[in-house]
Specification:
The complex is a heterodimer.
Chain A (H helix, E strand, L loop, with lengths): L1 H12 L1 H37 L5 E5 L13 H8 L4 E17 L2 E13 L11 E2 L9 E5 H7 L6 E8 L2 E13 L9 E5 H7 L16 E6 L5 H11 L3 E4 L1 H6 L4 H32 L2 H9 L4 H33 L10 H28 L2 H4 L5
Parallel strand pairs in A: 3-8, 5-7
Antiparallel strand pairs in A: 1-9, 1-10, 2-3, 2-6, 2-9, 4-7, 5-8, 6-7
Chain B lengths: L1 E14 L2 E14 L3 E5 L6 H9 L6 E6 L2 E2 L5 H11 E4 L11 H11 L5 H13 L15 H13 L5 E5 L7 H18 L2 E6 L10 E6 L2 E6 L2 H20 L1
Helix pairs in contact in B: 3-4, 3-5, 5-6
Classes of the chains: A alpha+beta, B alpha/beta.
């Protein structure tokens, strides 16, 4: 096939030029995918606790605008919620902060974490991908999320020491790591999960030792029976349990302060970046094609068909783009592996596909637009031999 | 039998509202083995005429026939295919594909019309050797002089054995010695192979290699020289005038 012959010859005889083009496309791909992955990583840091909670409804204290730290619930309400028709299980979730200062007695560089108190085997208690789940409500045990395990390289069975402030005193508590859960950042801070009774004792508080029998936590995670309609159950909970508000996990993180502002900034940044890059790549191939006016004019003058000329151009553009995109995507993957665990990188399959397809389509379209312009010019004019 | 024929051909352009008759009711015919020079001052319409003969432009009136086939009735694709097999074309610039070697540039014509085989390859090499380019087969155009590039273009215009060979200012960028070498070679091959050749040139000295000289002015054919003595005189006078100018 003559088009393939010409396209291949041009690329092999102008290796340096085409390698430069491959690299430019690869770098552009790397830039777009990396900024997109960073944006998604940031967004996930604000939502993953709720997304992975595995419950249909969340119950908050009334009038706190679904702000997690501001909500306060007690055991009595938990029992009331459990009695609402359609509710299969309810689990308390308490949120506080702590710092991991040592692993197996060896001082670490220190990592601030969200310390979540959950009832073992109840909604809110995390599933683990390695090790055991929480089982004993008073045990000095913890399940740590992937972010914590990757950043501090804590082995299963290790003992971590967490630092909290209770009253005026800095307290240190040891917790044995029994399992790893998927990432569950709370407000971008990685999490460790502690049985609720133990959490109540070790959380930051005015007086050490816990709040006694009236155990206070932040929200209740509600799992429904298979046939229950979430909206109906939510309405019933609101009607029968005093001073609570109910929402679903998605609404919960979307109403987190600053979440919408952050998401619109990230989306706008990703959208603009993609648009600019698509325009750059498109213009690049358009200019590259327009530079071949004389060559195309000559080919046409000696009898080459327009179709053959267009296919030759398209083969070059597609090969350039496919190699460039492939190298860029591979470089992105390599870079993500090399990045420290503290850098939030999340690959979104749909966004990667959209990015790669947009770039893959912009090149040929721009090339076709330029080729159409050139092919409209009479071959003699294209050759610079004005008739 | 006439190989190339133009019948009362006209081509009109519009520029700033004014009508310019680039070619005005021009007729000609070129037979097998005949090499015709189309000469005239800049803007006389000779390049337009060449483009019309090649089917690169469509006439506003009249028609072009090649081996009895009217170009007017052919669509764009058919015309491209017809040009590919029946016409050899050399231009004054941008003649060669920059990323193909000398041999590949010539073979391109055979690839285009699907006739590149062992014989075609041998013909390519033979033609290039006859044009003193036997040692340049693997060179890229950028490694050749202007004269060598023109000779490669001539080889490409002839390799697929077209019935018509059209050359647009083949000596435009060459010094006198190279110009004579290129045109004499072109004329020799056209005569040997029995093609019908038309060369557009502003350089009257090159007329000495033509069998017939057609002089154009303002789109019209103003003079036809067929007599060898007259043709050589035209070429010689031009040469003498140029020499005198140079001395002055």
């Amino acid at each position: 096939m003559l088009s393939l012959y010409l396209a291949t010859k041009e690329m092999t005889r102008n290796k340096r030029r085409f390698i430069s083009v491959f690299l430019i496309v690869a770098l552009i791909t790397l830039l777009v995918l990396f900024t997109s992955a960073l944006g998604d990583g940031l967004a996930q840091g604000a939502s993953e606790l709720f997304e992975r909670m595995g419950t249909e409804l969340l119950v908050y204290q009334q009038d706190v605008d679904f702000q997690l730290p501001a909500s306060r619930l007690g055991r009595a309400r938990l029992s009331q919620i459990r009695r609402v028709p359609g509710v299969a299980a309810v689990g308390p979730v308490g949120v506080s902060t702590a710092s991991i200062i040592a692993v197996d007695g060896v001082e670490s560089s220190g990592l601030d974490v969200s310390m979540l108190g959950v009832e073992p085997r109840q909604p809110g208690s995390p599933a683990t991908f390695a090790g055991d789940e929480l089982n004993d409500s008073r045990a000095a045990e913890t399940v740590i999320d992937r972010h914590v395990s990757e950043r501090l390289h804590i082995p299963l069975g290790a003992t971590i020491t967490v630092k909290v402030v209770q009253g005026m005193t800095e307290k240190h508590y040891d917790l044995r790591v029994i399992g790893y859960a998927e990432g569950r950042k709370v407000n971008f801070v990685p999490s460790i999960f502690v049985p609720l009774r133990r959490w109540d004792q070790i959380k930051p508080q005015a007086t050490p030792g816990g709040g006694g029998d009236d155990l206070i936590f932040n929200i209740a995670a509600v799992q429904l029976n298979p046939n229950a309609v979430p909206l109906d159950v939510a309405a019933q909970i609101t009607a029968t349990v005093s001073q609570v508000e109910v929402t679903d996990p998605i609404t919960a993180y979307q109403t987190t302060q600053g979440y919408n502002d952050m998401m619109s900034t990230i989306s706008m940044q990703q959208g603009f970046m993609l648009m600019i890059v698509v325009l750059i790549v498109g213009s690049f191939f358009q200019i590259q094609t327009l530079q071949k006016v004389a060559q195309i004019g000559m080919l046409e003058a000696i009898g080459a068909s327009s179709g053959m000329v267009i296919i030759t151009l398209l083969i070059q553009v597609m090969v350039t783009l496919l190699v460039g995109l492939g190298v860029g995507a591979a470089a992105m993957w390599g870079m993500a592996q090399a990045m420290p665990a503290s850098v939030p990188i999340v690959f979104s399959g749909s966004k990667i596909t959209i990015t790669l397809l947009s770039l893959l389509v912009s090149g040929p379209i721009s090339c076709l637009v330029a080729a159409r312009t050139i092919l409209k010019i009479e071959p003699l004019r294209a050759l610079g031999l004005s008739a | 039998m006439s190989t190339l024929e133009a019948r009362a051909v006209s081509k009109i352009y519009e520029m700033n509202g004014a009508e310019i008759r680039a070619v005005d009711n021009l007729s000609l015919h070129v037979g097998d083995g005949e090499f015709v020079a189309l000469v005239g001052p800049s803007g006389s319409g000779k390049t337009t005429m060449l483009a019309l003969l090649a089917g690169l432009l469509q006439p506003d009136a009249g028609e072009i026939l090649i081996n009895g086939n009217s170009l007017r009735t052919m669509g764009k694709a058919k015309l491209a295919a017809f040009r590919m097999t029946n016409i050899g074309f050399t231009f004054q610039a941008n003649n060669l594909v920059p990323y193909l070697t000398v041999q590949e540039n010539v073979e391109l014509m055979l690839r285009l019309n699907g006739t590149l085989d062992k014989k075609g390859r041998a013909r390519t090499i033979d033609l290039l050797r006859r044009l003193d380019l036997g040692d340049r087969l693997k060179n890229l155009p950028s490694q050749l002089s202007g004269g060598q590039q023109q000779r490669v273009a001539i080889a490409r215009a002839l390799v697929h054995e077209p019935s018509i060979v059209l050359a647009d200012e083949p000596t435009a960028s060459l010094d006198t010695g190279r110009a004579h070498q290129v045109v004499s070679t072109l004329a020799k091959l056209i005569h040997e192979q029995g093609r019908a050749g038309v060369m557009v040139s502003h350089d009257l000295r090159m007329c000495t290699y033509a069998d017939r000289v057609l002089q154009m002015e303002d789109g019209r054919l103003t003079r036809v020289l067929t007599d060898r003595v007259e043709i050589d005189a035209l070429a010689h006078v031009t040469h003498a005038e140029e020499h005198a100018e140079a001395v002055a």
